[in-house]
Amino acid sequence: HCFQPDELSVDLHPHKGSKKHKQLPALQNPSIRTSGRLKIVQLKKFLAIQLDLPSHSVIEVRCNDDVAGDELSLTFIERTRWLYPEEDMVLTYMTRDGF
């Protein structure tokens, strides 16, 4: 199959739980292939639907344990935060403080 040049593969996994955050469930299909132009806020909306959460605003997405801002694109995160260019990018998700 033909991939668009701006497409990337991303693995989405629950961030390991801590005392402050309850661990969210894993996705049935944790690997997605999507446009690198996709913004974190859009990814959060996808996660909220998949995980049956009331709102995307309760979700925090991280790359290498750094919180990814809502307006950042996946391509930007891959270029600036992801340390393993030969591997698919892995993002983790968790609930924000207080949820």
How would you describe this structure to a colleague?
The structure is a single chain. By secondary structure, the protein is an alpha+beta fold. The chain is 18% helix and 27% strand. The protein contains two helices and five strands. It has helices at 40-50, 74-80, and strands at 7-14, 31-35, 59-63, 66-67, 89-95. The longest helix has 11 residues, at 40-50. The chain is globular, with a radius of gyration of 13 Å. It starts with 6 loop residues before the first strand and ends with a strand. The model has no long low-confidence stretch (mean pLDDT 90).
Helical element count? 2
Helix-and-strand structural type: alpha+beta
Instruction: For the record, give the distance between the C-alpha atoms at the N and C termini, rounded to a whole number.
Output: 41 Å
- Proportion of residues in helical segments: 10-25%
So what's the oligomer here? single chain
**Which series of helices and strands comes N to C?**
EEHEEHE
* Overall pLDDT level: 90
Beta strand count = 5
C-alpha geometry: globular
CA-based gyration radius: 13 Å
Beta-strand content: 25-35%
Low-confidence stretches: none
Please state how the strands of the largest beta sheet are arranged side by side.
Answer: 2-1-5-3-4
| Main beta-sheet annotation | 5 strands, mixed
